[in-house]
Every structure is written in C-alpha cells, then in structure tokens.
C-alpha cells in the first residue's frame, strides 16, 4: 500500500486531498503545526475511510528541523504533497519587511527546504512523486498581490528545475495551480463562481493529474487559457490594467 | 465583504463572511458584539441564513465517531448529507430522513427540521437526533436532547439557527442491503386522482408526486407519483448490480455554468416542459430499480440548476394544509395558482404524516412546493395564497420563504409568540443570532 505525506495537512485543500487519497486506499501521514486541528482531521479521516492515518508535527518555518522530521517518519512516503502556503496582506507587505519575510519563507524557502530533502530521498530510491501547490499568481505579478505572487513565482521555477533534475531519475514532480479557490484564504472575497474551484475539485484534479503524471495542473482547466493570455499581454498594456 | 445569497439568488446581499474550524475560533468570533447568523451550504431558498455578518460552518465538518453495530454516527454540523451518503452507503447505511437535495449540512437539516419522501412514516429529521451540542451567543456549549435540556432542544430543532450554532449531532443511520430503490411510478389525470393515489400509498416508505401546476380545467393537478422502497438484493435484476449491491453508479454530471437569460424560462417554455414531462411517462403503473441518487436527488445531478432562473432569481412557495382542509382546500389553492399562469415546471406534492415539534413546519395533511421566478405579479399572488393557506389552517416552510410577513407567521405558527420570547431571552447579551428572515417575520427585532 502506498503512503502519502501531506505537509500542511490542516489547510482546506489538504483536507480534501487527504479525504481523496484515504478513500482511494492509501495510507496517510498528516503533518501540520496545530496539533489539535491535526488530531481532528486525522480522526475524521479515520471514520470516513478506515485507512491508516498517522499525525506528525511539522512547521514550514522550522528549516533546521526539516531533516529530522523527514528522517523520523514512521512510514516512508511514496508521494509527498506540499500544501502549505500563506497569502499574507499585500498592503502590510508593502510597508513591513517582516510580512514580506513571512510570505517568502512560508511560500518559498520552507517549500525548498523540505522538498530538497524529499527529493534527495526519492532520487536515491529511483522512484516517488512530489506535488506542490503553487499559484497562478506566480505566472505574472499583478498589482493586487505581487509579494505573494513573486514568492509563488519562485516556487514554480524551483519545481520546474526540480522536475528537470529528477525526470532522469524516475521521480515525478507536479506543480498545481489552483486559480481561484473557495478556501479559508478567500472566504470574505468576491470570487466569480464559474472560475472558482472547491477544495474537492482541487483534490480531484490533483489525483487525476498525478495518475496521468501531468507536469502542471491548472484547476479549473480554463485557467491554463486565462494565464496563457495574461502572460502574453504586452507589458505596455498590462502595466495600465487593474488586475 | 462579499456578495452572498441562498439558493434562490434572491436576495443577494453584501456581508462580512468568515468561517471557523474549531470551537475556540467560533467562541472568539462570538465575542464580537452584534448580530450574526450561521450559514451552512446555502440551500435554503430565501434569506434564512443571510444577514450582514455571516458565520460559515462548512469547515467545521469532521466525522467524530461511528458505531458499525448500531449505525450511530456523531459528526460536526458542517458535514453535508452528501458526504455521509458517500461514506456510508457503501457500508450499508442510509440517512433516516433526507430532503430533496443531499447538499445540505447537518446543522441546516436540524435548524430547518427538514422532511423527505418518508415523512408519513418516519417524520422529520429532528425527530432522529439523539443528542447535539449547540454553542450559545455567550460561547457556552449546551448539550441537549429530547430528555436533556429538552426545551432548548425543541426550539433548536426547526429554530432556523436563532437559538445558537449547532456544533455536532448524534443520530442513527438506517441499515440497507443495496444502494438501489424499488420504484413504482403512477401517472394520474388530475388532482383528485393523485390524492387518491397518496391515500393508497401509505404503506410505501417513500412517496411524492411531481404535479403540473400550469394546466387548467379537468386535467388540473395531473401528476406523476413516485413511490419506493429500499431494494433488497433479491429485488435486483441486473447481475452486475447484484455483485456490488452497495455501489451506486456515478450519474452523468451536468452543470449550469452561467445564469440563463431571463427569457429562457417563460410561460410557454414551462408549459412545453410540463407537456413533455407528463406525456413521456407512460400511463398506468410501472416498476423499475433505480440507484438512490436518481430516486432521491434527481436535481442534484444538475449542479447550479438554480441558474436556470437567471439573474432575477427565484423563490419557492411551499405550504402545507391540514387534513381537515380536505380536498377542497388544495383544489381551491391549486386553481388560484393555475389561473395565474405564474408557476414553474418544478412542483412537488407530498402527503405528510403526523408531526411533533415546537416550531417545525410539517403537519398531517398535504404539502405543495412550487418554484416561481421573481416577478411583481408573483409577489401579488403570494399575498393571496397566504390568505388562503392561513384560512385553511396551514402554514409556509421557513426554509423556502423569502417574503412572508410577520402577521402571516404569527397567524399560522401556534407557538410563534413563545418562540419569539424564548429567542429574545436566549439572545440577551452583546451577541445575538438573527437573520434577514427572522427580522422580517418578527422573531427578532
């Protein structure tokens, strides 16, 4: 039976991913900061699926602890799902370096730290899959969230390079870009219904995408077209837009 | 702030919306003074879960425990009925009561005290709750049941979220052998015939009828009855089904990705639909084995079907009139509706059994539920229907209502005054539970 390690297992997307994989017959290791929330999520999954669910504390910002975290996992993962992220407050980030650091450290540095470790392990095994949640916000910086967007842009480039390095070693790396998603990050925002994915849709897209060994998954599919257009708008026009 | 509405997309309001995932988070949110209301999956039709400050419950959705010998399930109130079915039908369990959509939360099902096709046998959802925890406006948690804090339990069941925020509930699922329903359809020619048919269907566990609310004259109220029982493995005809009896097939999922222009649903197109729907069903009685999704949730297969009504939105007028009103009552009301020519193609008729409950909607008699696109003429019609329903001793379903006034509510719910006083007492403090509906029908100020 294959094992999935979910990093940041208490986020909305991660919970939906956990439910998808648990009911599909995988054993799970759930890793997150908030022990109480983690226990509730693990208990819920156990009732829903009867699968083998382990919980382990994990802090994206505790870089020096990541190696030990990975080494002491009881079940060695076949798939690593990195689902943690931090949208941050764009207005605050414009004036506070602490907010900038937090945004970069969670969305980029923390990801690189733990995924480097998982990558080294999988490279040695000659097999395994790494999935990380990036964002369409990283495809091109826009005025409303470019601090978050630039951290995600860094993550997307890292994953692309990692995919390149590991492709020859039998290890698959998949980048997920959810587009608008209805989660706690976006609860109080107006989002266009047609373009907004639910956590369940994201989990489904990830599951199907990984089965087909896709490189980049856009949820919902139209975001691939939307971002293609947005990426190609000439800069002299783009800089005047209010996205 | 964001725009939000319930299922009828009328009204649509701007609200401060946030969710919670733990009781601690919820308690902190309730420390902010002011009015607030819980919002589950937004499947009530009007404004029962709308107001300027909204607490989403969908992330408070953990399964807590399940006893596979007794079928007793305990889960948080944000869990959808759909999730329970997805997990437990394959294990041989079904919901004790289910409304016409599975996309409602447990909290919503209790707060509206929902009913289903088996009301005449099994009553409403609230009657199956063994125990539940509810957080009051001051952050304290009350454990209540029919025997513990019973008064509080009785105003929470059907209390539309005004007594507190339901945290979790324990109830028994019912054992089933297969995921299929042995269904019988009966086509009838007019209102009298369908009511005869309901009288003859009391020993069926599940029964309801699609009723034509547009045709006048002798064929007024022509209907298609659908009644059913959970199929046993012996009932199954298809060999493939017999091998995996608890695995329901995944239906074709259709979606309505955008609001249809308002003109799409008009009296002509709706009449055409009714004609086709009625005549495609063969006359007489016919049996079939169908999966539970097709039998219980035909509309759920079309995601966002509410968009068919366009941007103007729609409302549903659902009333019940008691047995005592007799056939005359339903006849007169249906005649008023068909004469107006305003209704829609989706209309449901159901016979209710006895009902207990302090503030619940059902009563022994007949209920009719009918969609109407929002128009001024429809609003005028509703006022007239209100008077007729009240005269016959009936009432309206709060979970569908978006426009009833305080006078109608007070006149038709015998415990309205007591309920208002109880809620006022419970709402003492800085934080109060109130919705646009509760203000409109005079439960809260």
What would your notes on this structure say?
Chain A is an alpha/beta fold. Chain A has one domain (3-238): Rossmann fold (3-Layer(aba) Sandwich). Chain A has helices at residues 12-23, 35-49, 66-71, 90-95, 97-125, 146-167, 199-211, 222-232, 235-238, and strands spanning 3-7, 27-32, 53-57, 79-82, 129-133, 172-177, 180-181, 196-197, 216-218. In chain A, the strands form two sheets. Chain A has a seven-stranded parallel β-sheet with strand order 3-2-1-4-5-6-9, with helices on both faces. A two-stranded parallel sheet of chain A has the order 7-8. In chain A, helix 1 runs parallel beside helix 2 and helix 5 (97-125) runs parallel beside helix 6 (146-167). Chain A starts with a strand and ends in a 5-residue tail after the last helix. Chain B has a domain at 180-403: Alpha-Beta Plaits (2-Layer Sandwich). Chain B is built from 14 helices and 22 strands. In chain B, strands 16-12-14-13-19-20-18-21 form an eight-stranded antiparallel β-sheet. In chain B, strands 1-2-4-3-22 form a five-stranded mixed β-sheet, with no helix packed on it. The relative contact order of chain B is 0.15. The interface between A and B is medium-sized, with 20 and 23 residues.
């Amino acid at each position: 039976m294959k094992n999935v390690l979910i990093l940041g297992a208490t986020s909305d997307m991660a919970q939906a991913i956990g439910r998808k994989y648990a009911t599909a017959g995988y054993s799970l290791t759930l890793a997150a900061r908030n022990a109480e929330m983690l226990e509730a999520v693990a208990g819920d999954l156990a009732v829903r699926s009867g699968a083998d669910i382990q919980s382990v504390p994990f802090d994206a910002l505790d870089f020096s602890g990541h190696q030990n975290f990975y080494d002491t996992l009881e079940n060695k993962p076949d798939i690593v799902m990195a689902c943690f992220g931090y949208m941050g407050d764009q207005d605050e980030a414009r004036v506070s370096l602490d907010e900038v650091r937090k945004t970069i450290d969670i969305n980029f540095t923390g990801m690189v730290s733990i995924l480097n470790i998982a990558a080294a392990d999988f490279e040695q095994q000659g097999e395994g899959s790494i999935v990380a949640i990036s964002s369409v916000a990283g495809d091109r910086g826009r005025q409303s969230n470019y601090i978050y967007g630039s951290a995600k842009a860094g993550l997307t480039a890292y994953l692309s390079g990692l995919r390149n390095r590991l492709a020859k070693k039998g290890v698959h790396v998949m980048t997920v870009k959810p587009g608008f998603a209805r989660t706690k990050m976006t609860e109080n925002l107006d989002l266009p219904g047609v373009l907004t994915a639910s956590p369940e849709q994201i989990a489904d897209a990830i599951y199907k995408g990984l089965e087909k060994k896709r490189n980049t998954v856009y949820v919902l599919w139209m975001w691939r077209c939307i971002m293609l257009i947005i990426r190609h708008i000439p800069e002299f026009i783009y800089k005047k837009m209010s996205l | 702030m964001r725009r939000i509405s319930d299922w009828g997309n009328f009204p649509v309001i701007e609200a401060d919306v946030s969710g919670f995932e733990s009781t601690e988070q919820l308690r902190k949110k309730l420390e902010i003074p002011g009015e607030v209301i819980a919002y589950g999956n937004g499947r009530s039709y009007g404004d029962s879960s709308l107001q300027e400050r909204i607490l989403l419950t969908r992330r408070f959705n953990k399964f807590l425990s399940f006893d596979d010998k007794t079928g007793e399930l305990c889960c948080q109130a944000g869990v959808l009925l759909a999730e329970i079915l997805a997990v437990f039908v394959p294990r041989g369990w079904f919901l004790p009561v289910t409304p016409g959509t599975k996309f409602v939360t447990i909290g919503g099902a209790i707060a509206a005290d929902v009913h289903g096709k088996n009301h005449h046998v099994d009553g409403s959802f609230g009657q199956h709750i063994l125990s539940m925890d509810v957080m009051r406006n001051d952050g304290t948690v009350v454990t209540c049941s029919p025997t513990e804090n019973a008064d509080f339990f009785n105003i929470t069941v059907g209390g539309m979220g005004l007594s507190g925020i339901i945290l979790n509930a324990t109830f028994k699922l019912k054992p089933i052998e297969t995921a299929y329903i042995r269904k019988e359809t009966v086509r009838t020619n007019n209102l009298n015939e369908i009511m005869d048919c309901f009288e003859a269907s009391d020993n069926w566990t599940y029964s309801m009828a699609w009723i034509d609310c547009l045709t006048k004259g002798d064929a007024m109220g022509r209907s298609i009855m659908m009644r059913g029982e959970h199929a046993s493995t012996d009932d199954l005809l298809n060999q493939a089904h017999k091998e995996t009896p608890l695995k329901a097939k995944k239906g074709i999922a259709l979606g309505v990705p955008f609001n249809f222009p308002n003109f799409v649903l008009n009296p002509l197109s709706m009449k055409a639909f009714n004609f086709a729907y009625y005549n495609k069903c063969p006359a007489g009685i016919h049996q079939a084995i169908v999966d539970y999704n097709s039998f219980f949730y035909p509309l759920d297969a079309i995601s966002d079907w509410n968009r068919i009504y366009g941007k103007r939105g729609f409302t549903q007028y659902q009333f019940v009139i008691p047995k005592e009103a007799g056939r005359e009552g339903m006849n007169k009301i249906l005649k008023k509706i068909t004469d107006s020519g305003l209704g829609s193609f989706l209309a449901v008729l159901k016979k209710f059994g006895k009902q207990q409950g302090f503030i619940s909607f059902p009563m022994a008699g007949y209920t009719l539920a009918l969609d109407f696109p929002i128009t001024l003429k429809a609003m005028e019609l509703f006022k007239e229907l209100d008077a007729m329903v009240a005269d016959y001793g009936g009432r309206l379903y709060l979970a569908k209502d978006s426009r009833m006034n305080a006078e109608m509510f007070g006149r038709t719910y015998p415990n309205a005054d007591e309920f208002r006083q109880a809620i006022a007492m419970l709402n003492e403090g800085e934080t109060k539970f109130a919705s646009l509906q509760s203000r409109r029908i005079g439960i809260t100020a």
